[in-house]
Amino acid sequence: xxxxxxxxxxxxxxxxxxxxxxxxxxxxxxxxxxxxxxxxxxxxxxxxxxxxxxxxxxxxxxxxxxxxxxxxxxxxxxxxxxxxxxxxxxxxxxxxxxxxxxxxxxxxxxxxxxxxxxxxxxxxxxxxxxxxxxxxxxxxxxxxxxxxxxxxxxxxxxxxxxxxxxxxxxxxxxxxxxxxxxxxxxxxxxxxxxxxxxxxxxxxxxxxxxxxxxxxxxxxxxxxxxxxxxxxxxxxxxxxxxxxxxxxxxxxxxxxxxxxxxxxxxxxxxxxxxxxxxxxxxxxxxxxxxxxxxxxxxxxxxxxxxxxxxxxxxxxxxxxxxxxxxxxxxxxxxxxxxxxxxxxxxxxxxxxxxxxxxxxxxxxxxxxxxxxx
Length: 373
Known about the structure:
By secondary structure, the protein is an alpha/beta fold. It has helices at residues 29-32, 71-95, 182-191, 204-209, 235-251, 300-314, 319-327, 330-351; strands spanning 33-36, 47-52, 99-104, 125-126, 147-153, 171-175, 178-179, 197-202, 217-220, 222-224, 230-232, 258-261, 265-271, 287-289, 292-297. The chain folds into two domains: 1-16 and 265-353, no CATH class; 33-260, 3-Layer(aba) Sandwich (Rossmann fold), CATH 3.40.50.10780. It is built from eight helices and 15 strands. α2 packs parallel to α5 (235-251) and α7 (319-327) crosses α8. The longest helix has 25 residues, at 71-95. The radius of gyration is 22 Å and the shape is globular.
């Protein structure tokens, strides 16, 4: 998932960007988490949620293909996405799924779903809601889904995978002293309702990250050679494996494990460039050390909410890259000077009673929301 941060607090920006040492070696999943059998299907309808990302697709070796800011290459990425997702959906139905729903877990910057909906497998349906929702946590309800399949995922921060990160750029999430992937984040979230993750696809580094979850049917789509390069496998071969593995995942659902993280939870957010948490150093009550902030939460939801708030702080440092670029050109320097004048002017106008914050604009009538944006 990609988070776009507005230009804020740019004037006089002096946030640090040093990289902290990696966290201690991860503990085995069974030492820190509860593993349980899936909740039995009670309504006779085997319903599967497919959550897709966009960095771990087959045929893809250019990071610009998952970024809406590069229209031509993003269009290529959408082709890779719909092909991989449809292959997985076909396998899920072949294995015995009755319903398949799809939710966008990427957020390319496109206000519309990343999936080409006119090409989506005809028996599947995209998840839409009338209000914004968080795809990782707001679809978790008892008795709705029987399994989750994640498609086009990526390795965690520090894994040296293709576009490896956790949640967004420069973020590492550590729960009970174990750094996790977004796939595991999905597992912990849906584990609250007794729903297992049964299928995943992505590069070889993600496969290594998920070695502690052997019940997941995993398909390696490519070999990562750096965060921005990969050795591709024949796409037809990968698509055939996606379909076959998804079919097996349904057939073996009863062997899968539900992951439930035990509370209280020691949660740590660690930032690496371009993110930073250094702005919190020295703040009373904040457990900050080496670009990391740690807190204790009573359960997964509280830990998740706290981490998201910290991510909001860490990603303000993205603006540092923008400032560096602007300062390197005469036009950019002029823009920064004008911005500083506007910033001071806004302060003076507010203090003088000449400006008040505008009321939030209501969403467009009939707006539908599909998850990450």
